[in-house]
Amino acid sequence: IITWFNRERIALVKVEKIVRKGYSSTLSSEQLWEVYKSMKTQRLLEDRLLKMYKGGQLSGAVYPGIGQEASMAGIGAGMGKQDIFGGTHRDLGVQLMKGVTLKEVALNFFGKKDGPSKGRDGNSHFGVVDKGTLMVVSPLPDSAPVAVGWALASQQQGSGVVAVANCGEGATATGTWHESVNMAGVLNLPVVFTVQNNQFAYSSPNETEFGTPNVADRGAGYGIPSLIIDGNDIYDVIDTLHDACENARKGQGPTLIELVTFRHYGHAGHDPADYVEDEVRDFWMKRDPIARFEDSLINEGLFAEQDFLDLESNLEVEIRDTLEWAKSQEDPDPNDELKDMFAVRTKPIIDNNSNNLKTMNYIEAINNGLDELMTDDEGVFIMGEDVGVFEGAFKATKGLFDKFGPFRVIDTAISEGGFTGAAVGAALAGQKPIVELQFYDFVYPALDQLTTEAAKYYWKAGKAVPMVVRGPTGAGTRSGPFHSISPESLLAHHPGIKVVAPSNPYDAKGLLVAAVNDPNPVMYLEHKKLYRKPDLKMDVPVGLYEVEIGKGKIVREGSDVTLVTWSGMVSVAQEAAEKLEKENISVEIVDIRTIVPLDEEIILNSVEKTSNICILQEDVPFSSVASEISSLVAEKGFWNLDNPIKKVTSPNTHIPFAPVLEDAFIPSVEEVVNAIKELQ
To answer: Of the residues 339, 459, 468, 523, which has the fewest C-beta atoms closer than 10 A?
Structure first.
């Protein structure tokens, strides 16, 4: 056994009777009975679900937590009623302790319409946010940064809510977990990290998962206290969680708790767990958490063995009847899928008819919009690398740190996944986070949180995520292949995300205000060549106003060719149109402004008018926004076309650094002129 387990960790898990000492000693017999009932419900439920899965009566997968009931029920019992829990697929016990009903669990396992995930995700991949449990997803531990974000919102709001971020020991090898713990430690957030060390990450034993003897040893590296406890001792779990939550609530910051436990079955229903040696299994079976709890309750004279038998009999009937009931409930309607992709805005559009105007360039309009948004709503805050004292790499946050302070203009570590996921959690908690990416090329480390969490929350859990991710995009500044992408196609591919790309100062401020007021995640793209473009200054209204998301604009009327573009290419389109006008070719320029949702009507109406279309984009051509617009026109406007659809794009390469190469990469005025001439 010692070859499998660290001596210090295993020494905690004894055969001796468990005893109430701390907070658990204040619990009444009724409260203890509820904890026991939760543990027993989980075991009987998962045992039945596992048998149904193996018998072909259940689709999807079952991830039994049998053997870990004390860890799960103890976490739930140690938390405050208002606290939030971010867990994994093996945390049914916490869900039950937080008030999620047996009916809700059963509905989700059968993929029913009224289940927590509305049939849109796997059996145990759900949460009920209104009851304090965050959505469960497959990449683990993706709920950790979301929990950190909720804790950040709690700190800002003074709500007293503590977030608990739970995972198995295998997930602590991920960057997501490290970024989350690091961010929580740096910001001293009210969050507790729990790790249920059940000895195997799927089939991998601890010694192949981490180099330290214990998971909890890592706490020192993040400057936070850590503990190793017997995860099969329900009292120890309750007491430790309660103390950690109360410390966090008092402003003493995060704690890392390693709960040593063991799963009686494999990783999932299809896993026979034959990698577990008999002597190891025997060691843990003698330390079964439910049996230990029962012995304690009997020894205290609180309950008799017959009470446990009666409860088991009643629960078996309730579980069987509930599962049978759930089978017959209504299935989800495929017609509802599209309708639930985006939360519907109910807040009125902000209008500003004031004559109070100020001449601004592009970056000044963004800065002004941020300033006014934060002044208008205390829930709006900014976070990202160097956004505070340094005022951002491009000075978009100039003056905001001095005006609003470090709790609303938050300098973060280099941790795009961590702080983007935190924005999701803060948005769910009622804040309006604005994430600044130093360059939009750095969105890749954040994509997991954007696509797995932000994009799916409303569709799957019915909870809006009002957050904005903004930052510089585009080539032309000799910044090379890692600071120059046009990410709109990448982002637009993922349902549930809105994408806007303003081309001028007026639209930059108006779309930013609209993005912050939208109840969905909005990716706000700022072409950095526009920031201080000398000839791009406009009169911008002082005070809040909005440019409606999803509405394009005709920036130049024409009759011969429709030229569709956006962002940094609008100025290229205008210059090309002026040249073509001298040759009696009239070009109508459509600035779509929003990539998702796309204003199809303005494009199709213009094509109907001109009978020709050219699409201009800076991004590479394959599987791009230009491809999508081409498809739209081919499908819905084909009979209005006199000529084939033309596209002017960069070549399908990475963005080069050398000036001669970068200049050749970016679509030029001459290329646009030549393409349009081919349509005449």
So the answer is: 339
Q: What is d(CA 383, CA 255) in angstroms, rounded to the nearest whole number?
A: 23
pLDDT digits (tens, 9 = 90+) for 103-157: 999 999 999 999 999 999 988 999 999 999 999 999 999 999 999 999 999 999 9
Report which secondary-structure segment, H or E, holds 260: strand 255-260
Is the preceding omega at residue 597 within 30 degrees of 0, hence cis? yes
Q: What digits encode the pLDDT tens for the residues 228-251?
A: 999 999 999 999 999 999 999 999
Give pLDDT, residue 1. 40
| 104/117 Cα distance (integer angstroms) | 10
Single-letter residue type at 578: E
3-state secondary structure of 196: strand
Q: Name the DSSP class of 133.
A: B
CB atoms within 10 A of CB 168: 27
Among 89, 38, 58, which residue's Cα sits nearest to residue 198? 89
- On whether the CB atoms of residues 166 and 196 are closer than 8 A, the answer is yes
**Which residues of the chain, if any, have pLDDT below 50?**
1-4
pLDDT of residue 10: 66
Question: What residues are paired with 193 via a beta bridge?
Answer: 165, 256
Spatial strand order of the sheet with 409-411 comes to 409-411, 380-384, 432-436, 468-473, 522-527, 498-500, 594-596
Task: Tell me which H or E stretch contains 44.
Answer: helix 29-54
Which pair of structure tokens corresponds to residue 261? 């436990």
* Nearest C-alpha neighbor of 600 from the set 559, 552, 648, 638: 552
Q: Which of 483, 493, 527, 654 is catalytic?
A: 483
Model pLDDT, residue 7? 55
User: Which distant-in-sequence residues (6+ apart) come within 8 Å of 495 by Cβ?
Assistant: 341, 455, 459
Greatest Cα pair distance in the chain: 98
Give the model's pLDDT for residue 3. 47
pLDDT of residue 358: 97
The pLDDT value given to residue 12? 77
CA-based radius of gyration for the chain:
28
Q: Find all residues with CB under 8 Å of 233, minimum gap 6, and list them.
A: 18, 70, 289, 292
**554 phi and psi angles, rounded to 5 deg:** -80, 110
Residue 565, amino acid? T
State the DSSP string of 81-117: TT-EEE--TT-HHHHHHTT--HHHHHHHHTT-TTSTT
